[in-house]
Every structure is written in structure tokens, then in C-alpha cells.
Amino acid sequence: MTRHTDAPESLSRRRFLKAAASTVFILGFYVPLGRRTASAQTPPSETPAPNLFLKIDSDNIITVISKYFEMGQGVVTGVATLLAEELEADWSKLRFEFAPNDVATYNNLVFGPVMVTGGSASMAGSWMQMRKVGAAARTMMIEAAAKKWKVPEAELRAENSTVVHTSGKSATYAELAADAMQLPVPQDAPLKDPADWKLIGKNVPRLDSAEKTDGKALFAMDVKRPGMLTAAIAHPPLFGAKVKSFDATASEAIPGVEEVVQIPAGVAVLAKDSWSALRGRDALKVEWDTSGAETRSDEQIFAEYRQQAQGEGLVATKRGDAGKALPSAAQKLTAEFTFPFLAHTPMEPLNCILDFDGDKAEMWSGCQLQSIDEHVLSEVLGIESKRIRIHTLLGGGSFGRRGNPLGDWVAELAQIGKAMKSRAPVHLLWSREDDIRGGYYRPIVLHQLEAGLDDSGNIAGWQHKVVTQSLFTGTPFAALMVKDGVDHSSVEGLADTPYQIDNFNVRVYNAESPVPVLWWRSVGHTHTAHVMETVIDELARMAGRDPLQYRLELLPEARDREVLQLVAGKSGWGGSTGENRGRGIAFHKSFGTRVAMVADVSIDEGDFTVDKITAAVDCGVAINPDVVTAQIEGAIGFALSTLLRNRITLKDGRVQQSNFHNYEPTRIREMPAVEVHIVQSAEPPSGIGEPGVPPLAPAVGNAIAAATGKRMYAMPFSLKA
Amino acid sequence: MARIELKINGQDRQLDADPQMPLLWALRDLLDMTGTKYGCGRALCGACTVHIDGEAARSCSIMLGEAQGREITTIEGVSGPVADAVVGAWRELDVVQCGYCQSGQIMSAITLLSKNRKPSDEDIDASMEGNICRCGTYQRIRAAILESAKKIGGDQ
Ligand code: FES
Ligand code: FES
Predict the structure, then answer these.
(1) What is the ipTM of this complex?
(2) pTM for this structure?
(3) Which of A57, A61, A460, B39 is deepest in the core (most CB within 10 A)?
């Protein structure tokens, strides 16, 4: 990433292509897409599509064009690793850039046709595509050198972005690029033997470390456009409320405030700088129409969910007949689990910049869902999609928040762009308060279940109810996830549990609320993993069995058992923990990746401290083991706050939290020692950004139960009650 | 509006601004020094950490009027053996994820190591507690501080 605040047009696709053509090798060709990632619906991208993924400049610097958005998960390093491996590129001369909004070229092969980064699917989607691009380019370079020097290709090899002849003669890719560009693109250039990998599976340094340690990394927050105004919005105090009237006299009196406009989302104050915009917003007097708004408290919501769970609901899984099996069970367990609303609180608050001249628009954003954002801009601004250019920038975290299928804050930006009188570029800035009070939370979830054991301690039956708001219904992704009213994301990790349970019934109850909800790092697994792993653990104790052994016997798949065995071995499972200490284990599979954790906790004066987490991971080929390790470490630091204290609560519909003092993320003092062990695997890569989150809560909860006998049925955890 | 004279990264800078404006926004919006980040605006997260007269300070909660005449250093201007060791260790250990908090983390780490060449875990907790990393990179932040201490000879 380079700072492009002064020359934004240079990134426009046409200019980019043209500028590139003179000095740069552009690889634009047809990559037959792997069948492994093909979805049943056969989107248009299944037919070969033109691809454009790298450029080489005259200094032999290779720039990888990433269609995936970097929000910290290390995706650009991963994408570049795959491409560079096959290309035999010199890693020290590799750069990255984000792709423009062009879904035909930069389709997400897992979810497409759509340009999106998410579902922990970027490495799965890149695994064949990026290596094929690299292999094709390498083949073309060798062919170009063979022609130029009139030597057989067999006498040439590629290394460090250079083609070398057995005689010692060599040429850089930059020197060969012009000739290579003239050659037809090979459709099935051979991929390297894994034994010859130099980058995949090695700890290649992150491509974004340098710019993120000297203040130069460019986030949307840092983009400046000539004459740019900053906008802050007075949002409704209740979800679903609307502006009735407002008085901007005090705001307009603040120096720097230029304009105040009403938009569907609230009232926006536009000012010359951020501080004046925020002050102007605070000085507004707005009357709100609260008819139809959410006015319940979260306790009321839970009470209503309990009511709703008395009804029939929808069948998510029916295997055998739990209702028949349970009455004759030798031992029974009934439990209710509660999960609060959670805000994502990415470190960089939501913000984006629009430059709209009435006819065409450019947006700068930490953009995770380019296709949706483009559509939202097009709808609100009333211009065609092809007149919209999105510049994707580094994102200061997301955890799901920036990938909103409704593009809420982008819609606000467009509404402002449309309503404002001046034609200045505008930067919409959300304060931390806007972020925490702005909704799109992980929804409240209620689980109720009954499980029974037979005489020998085996699971006789398991009946389960889940009440929550659907995440996917009404979004463009509904067809992928919602079947007969059952949103799979409400029950993922539960309805499809890998544990062998013969009589297993899961029902789902779709709740309605004006509080907007959204996927939150690991989506449904944020709650299902905790419920499953807490209950399995409790059943094991009821059966008088070791929780590890009990799990191993219930898991038919060898890969599942292997991570558990690995974590058990590394953590010293089975050893003694000492007084006021507890050790707990948990396993969960999400996004194709298996993670097992052992937690060591200490208990002191009715409180708990997580001392250590030992984790084992099977994510297929670990393209970059250090990034895999970092994602597990980070997921633990991220998720720990939800065990410790994080919850969004409503009182008469009002969000009670506002900033990091009352919605406080994990602090360094609370971070446990984390040890990560990776299963060696030759299987295709699966996700790593999210799967570290789900097993943390149950591993810690089970450790607390081991120490105190208390089960953690409510998040955040409390040892008091 | 008033004429404000600031000393930033060894340079004299003049501004016409409201003395009540937080230093953070002046740096970012008026001086185009965007390495210093906004995270909370209320001295709760540390993303906006700069050095004022050598001390780590939250620039979101210091007004321009208070910053006048004092030595301000931002991430763009850090230098010297401690800064080099810290930035180097951050890179070697690939501490960053999203990176948004990391200017602030690095600024706090430099202050810590400038005063205490051999910090204990408790010293690290105490000095770094005000810096939130939502990506949860704390394990590596701690490791990078210890690594920096080694480089500057604090462990000998
Ligand atoms: S922005 Fe200053 S401490 Fe958070
Ligand atoms: S690296 Fe993302 S908040 Fe720290």
C-alpha cells in the first residue's frame, strides 16, 4: 500500500491498466476454476473468467493484487505466498495492492458471484487459483527466455524472480516481461511438488509489518481529499426511531461547521475537521419519533424468548427420537444458556470517504463487501454501478462488522453525499460511541436443552431449542444459508455436530426485533460451541468418565480425534492442577478447521484468571504457520473479553454501554500465555481467522467447573451467583 | 481561534486553531500526521499515544493549548536506539495484525524501555495496560518488549 491521497485517479482501473501496460507485465488470462470450490448454483464465474493478479515493474518488484481485504488476518501475506511460491518470486521484492471493485475478475470463488472477504474462506478460495496464476506466469517467463536465447526450456530454471540458464546466463522477470506478455497463457502449467515448496508452510514474514510499525499504513481514517469535509451523524437513541425535527442553531454556531443535513439515518453535521464535526453533532437538538422503536430491556427480550421456546419452532435436525428416548434415561441434564448482544468494536471505528460529482462516485473504505457497498452506493446515489470506483484500504479490524450485507454506514455516507449542498468530498466518521451503540450486534441467543445418559453413560437422547434472530434472512446471502425458515448460522456447530448422538433433535425459533444483528467473528459458533462443549463435558463427568476420553469415543473422524490428542499431550492433560486451579478441555470444528484447547485457570476470591491456553489446530496445509499461530493467539485475546465482561445491554431500548470503560476489551494483564500446536497436514487449507474463537469459552468454563463445580451457563461468566 | 506554536518531531509548527482542540485531531486533520490514531477519544484505549516531554500521553485528551511549547514526538518522528530496537522487534516477531493500535503500542513501549531497560512482566502490564489491542496481539507485544530489552542490553 502506498499513500495515494494525492493521486486517487491513478488507481482507477482504466488508468491503472494503461499505465501498467507500458512498464509492467500484466497477467490477464483465463484460469479454469477448480471444481472443489464450485457451488451447486453455478454462478457465472464458473465459466473461465479473465483474471488479473500481478504486475511486475522495471525494478523487478512484483505487486500481488489481492481481491481479499486485509483486516489483520494476514490474508495478503497468504495470497502472495501462494502466488510467489509457484512464480518462484523473490519474497523480499514482493508488494501488495487491493483489487478494484470488479466482481467479474475478483469474484469470491467460495460464495460468488460476489466480491467479499469472509467466512474464513480466503485461503480455500486462493489455494488453486493463486498457485495456478503463479505457475502460468513462471511458465511464460521460461518460455520467453527459451525463445530469446534459442535454448531448450529444459535447460532453464526460475528462481528469485529470475530465469537462469545452465550456462549461467540469466534475465530478470522484468527483463522478460515484454516478451512473456506476447505468449499464450498456459491453461495447465504444472504445480510444484509440495516437497519443493520454499514459502508454503514456512514462516514467511508478513507483508504489512513495516508500514504498520512506522505510522505509514493507510487506513480509510487516514485518507485526505482536497477540500474534504468530515461528517458526524446524530443517530437515533433507540433502534427503529426516526428524526421528528431538529434544531441546528447551536451546531451551526460552532466554527468549522459548514452544513447540517437530515438524512434517513439521522442528522449529519459536516465540518472542516473531525473535532468540529463531533462537537457539532453533540450540539444538535433532535426530537425523535420513537413509534415502532425497540423499547424493551434485554431481560424482557430473554423473558420473551423463554415464552417463544414453549412453542413448536422449526426443525433444524431430527435424528432418531429424543422425546421417546429421554424419559427412560438413567440420568438427565437440563440446562439453559444465555448469550448477550455483543458489539464488534474494531479498533478503527467505521468510516469511509465519498467523492461524488453528481454523475460518478469514488469511495475509500476498509471495504470487506465490495459488491454490496457498490450496490448500496448505486441505489442511494442513483447512478450505475460502473460509475462507482471503490478503493479498498487496510482495515483496522472488522470481526464481521465491515462485512454488513446492508452496508449500513456506506448507505449513510451516500445519503450525506446526496443531501449535502456542497460538492466537497466527505468523510463519514463514526465515534466509538456510535460504534458501540450502533447495533448490528451478535444477537441475543437462548439455548434450552435436555440430554440423558443410559446405564452405561452413553448419550441416550438430546433435545435442544435455540431462540435467536436470524442473521441471513433478508440478506442477499439468504439462499446460501436459510432453508425452510431455518437459518443454518443459528445452529451451525450444533445441528451438524461431529459428536455421534443417535437421538438428537434441534429446534430453532426465529425471533424478531428492531435491533439490527450481524455475524460476529465465528458467527453461530460463538454460542453453539460453548453449549455443546459445556454439555459434553458435564455429561462426561455425570458418566464418571474422563472428558477427553469421552469425547474421543464420540468422535468418529480421525482428524477430530487427532487435534484433541495433540492438545492433551502438549498440555499435560490428566496431571494434577493444584489447589484453586482447574483445567478444562474443549474441541470445535468451524469453517473446516478443527481447534482443541486446554485452559488452565486459577480461582481467587470468587473470580477467575485464565493462566494458560494450550491449543491444537488442524487447518489443512498451514500456508504460514506463524500467521496461523497469531490468529489463534489473537482470537483468544479477542474472545476472552466476552467471558470476562463484554455485553451490550438495553434499558427501555437504550444501549447502556458507550465506550471502552463500560465495554472494555481484554487488556494485556489479562492475556493468558498461549501455546499453539499445528497438526501437519497435506489436506487443502481451511479457515483460520475465526476458528480460534469458539473453543475458548467452553475450555475456560470447563476449567472453572473442574475447580469449583460451577458450570458457566451464562456469558459473560460469573462465579458469584 | 488562536495562533498555536507546536514543537513536533523536532520541528516548529504553527497553526491557527482553537486551543481547545485535542492534539490528536490537530495532528491528524490539520498537520496530516495520521500515524497517531483515534480509537476512543477519552483516554481509554491508547491508540492516540504520543510522547510529550518524553512521557507517553494520550493525544485525544490533551488540548492544543496545553501542548504548546512542549516537545511532542509522534510515531512518524521516533528515533534512537530504543525506538530502533522496539520497531525492529515488532517487525521480527510480526506483532501486528490489523495494525491500527500499533502506533500507540509502540509509543508506550518506547517510553517504558527508555526508563526501564529491564522490565518485568508486571512492569510491562503496568505500562501497557492503557493500550488496547482488539486483535489480541498482547502475547507478541510482551515478547517484542522483552526482545527489545535484550537488544538494548537491558538484560545484561
Ligand atoms: S483515542 Fe486517545 S486513548 Fe483512545
Ligand atoms: S493489531 Fe488490531 S487492534 Fe491491535
Answers:
(1) 0.98
(2) 0.94
(3) B39
